## 1
Amino acid sequence: MYNHNFVATALKLLILLLPCVLITLTGCGTVSQVAPSESNSQPLPIYKPGTTFVYSDGSWEVVTDSTPHQVTWRDHRGNVYEGSPDFTYSPENWRSADRKVSRRFTSRGNFMVGEVTSLWPLKKGKKAVITEFVISRKNGAPEKSYRRSWTCMVVGPEQVTVMAGEFYTWKIACRRYNNYQNLSKAKLREIRTWNYAPEINHYVLAQKQFFTGKADRRLELLAVLPTADGLPSSAQVKMQETFQKALEFQKSGDTIGWSTRGASLSGKITPTATFRLPDGRFSRQYVQTVKFGDEERTYYGLAIRNSEGKWEIPRRQ
């Protein structure tokens, strides 16, 4: 059973423990990625179907379909949404059991930015301005429509530490105003920021700051889970057994691997840091790699040892 306090406690613990207070004899987890250069651009992310992203509040979303121009997601509530791989845009289509939302976006050029509507490829200082038109339909209620005005910018490279580990990222910020026609007279309503990690092809930190009385929000990446679709049951069993064994017995920095007959599928797990929760339970950050034929993918995360001695990634069911 998912416990909201379980995740909240772990999040507070990691913030308090940074940069590192470990119970093992090994050092802190290290950043394995290459630091982004301010002069280099970063292409639009590419999402792999079946990949699941778990966040610090226990929510999660899985990629169900992906093309270079559109990604379809399903979240822990069963909601389905699709849109651009550019996550600074809200989904073009979103639907739940009783509601549907559609959006379209248009340029809102000005003399400083022009008609730029996308920050990708990312480069420090790049700006974009857009107007978002939204139509919301809820069963048994009148249709609602509204528009939003956004001004976005690539702030630049930034190193951040979240529950899943420490990452080199690109920081992106978008500001929403209440007047889409005249920004000089508009009031700032919201600021959204993302820290995009090229190693993960996704953001590891998303924050919302409201100027309307709503509570601010902070969402950290807790884990990225590999897909089990297409994997034979024997490979799934070996991967899970090795995951449990690595987190239970391996010291931070030590790697243990697994493979199938013929080594067509293989992987390895490396714990990178170990913490102890106030209630006595252990949590560990780790790096997992899975090799699918000639392609190798890397997944970062944090797991917590439950009362039964099993390591699990806490998420909503």
## 2
Amino acid sequence: MSGVRKAFGSNVVLDGVDFTVNRGECVVLIGASGSGKSTLLRCANLLETVDDGVITFEGEDITDPRVNGDEVRSRMGLVFQSYNLFPHLTVLGNVTLALRKVHGVAAAEAEQRGLAMLDRVGLAEKARARPDDLSGGQQQRVAIARALVTNPRLMLLDEVTSALDPELVGEVLDLLSDLKSEGVTMVLNTHEMGFARDVADTVCFLHDGVIHESGTPAQVIGDPQQERTRAFLSRIRA
């Protein structure tokens, strides 16, 4: 992202954001609610149209109005905090839906890939279950499997543990740690500072739509230089 700006009416949510993610990196966005973290991800995925600035993905200016947004999104995986699983489909049906409908994969191959992905996230035995039969942590792992099964170049994860009971957070964070070790490129918003400290390559602190501080976890979380960063981390720790 270069100089990205996004406003909703008079409310400026992103105000000239410069932001880079390299292949294989895990970048964690931190900041209070309303700081622009979710909007940044939605702009990256072209779910929101930026007002100014350029977003380049794999060498292509995806903010060019001539770009096919559906094609761009087919190369990314986006996971929401509220799962967004289809309740009338089985777990396997949810995981394979985009493979079949968007990527044109034959049903037999899609099922094979879906079962392999569910095994990867530890839910192979739940393939024929419905989402309502699963715990929140299991549903979120299904949502991550659905995003991963299309082999995206970039995973965007929007507060994927915020809707979970505390005892279920660990299983999702463990999965994300495994993905990081496998070299999956990720950008995620989270309030889980322990995860950010242990897994992130880069931590970015957003405040009022601006990245005020970025660097390694040791720099930003362990030794923040900006007063706003220190105040935010103090509130989180409290």
## 3
Amino acid sequence: MQSEIKEMQERIAFLQRHIEQQDRAFLELSKEITALSQRLARMEGKVNQLGGDEEAPPADSKPPHW
């Protein structure tokens, strides 16, 4: 019985560490997504300032020389 309790305690400790590691990873990913979203918004703004808001051809269309 004692060995079973000890094994369960070890498993719980492992799972707690694993959850903490996942929480840190999710926080880092969230920060990275936020930074990339801000960067994309800035780049879109620059493209629009340069006249990039003209209508672009569909992405799946072939170039004129095809």
## 4
Amino acid sequence: MCNLDDQPRFCISVPEIIRIDDADDPRLAPYRQIRERDLVGRQHRFIAEGRVVLNVLLGHARFEAESLLLLENRVDGVSDLLARAPDGLPVYVASQPILDAVAGYHVHRGVLGVGRRTDARDLDAFVAALPRRALVLVLIGISNHDNVGAIFRNAAAFEADAVLLDETSCDPLYRKAIRVSVGAVLKVPHWRGGTAEALLARLANAGFDCLALSPRGARDIAELAPQERTALLLGSEGSGLPADLLARLTTVRIGMSAGFDSLNVATAGAIALHRLWRGAGKDGAS
């Protein structure tokens, strides 16, 4: 909607508000049985949950919002969010019983959206687009969605340029991973697929110094001077990074008490990222 006095001075995005009174309404198909579909995938689509995450979705060019689904008593409280929505975006509004019946669980936040990935670059194109000076995280075999979400939150906090995930790591566009990341999954560029070997080969060809983080690393990461292009590898809880990778790469550790030798992977990743971020002279370095 635009002010058309003489010349347009401003335009207001007007989403399409649609009242839903039937849990079987076909327009809500993407929201149906959310937890079950989390397990089988959504063909490049994902569920965004909560106003913080939706705020990121509506302001990011790599992803496109297809619709929103709101609890009827939340509409007024998210008017600022709706003002940022693309003109004509369907905004479905329903009562709590309808929302719960569609989702398959009690949706206490009452603010949902369906998004779609629009960036379909292959690995070569993705790596080629990274800046000349770059800090990249590489996740190998990390299948816990909470950890993946937390790692992306850390990546955003310490200005990592990208996150690469091998094919055995979980999809960061899983609903819980997005929520734990407070939307960082939608901010930090990422690429998922292929083997660890393929990811490392492409990074090495692009001039990245690949560092493997392990409790038994040969060097304390605090002693390391980051290179212009650095990739930090993180492995799963428990088994960590594969032995053959550790044998071939520069290994680093986080110094800690002699009576304890390991941290949660997201915590360890945050400490290591902070060191590399500060050591690289980013904003906030002392």
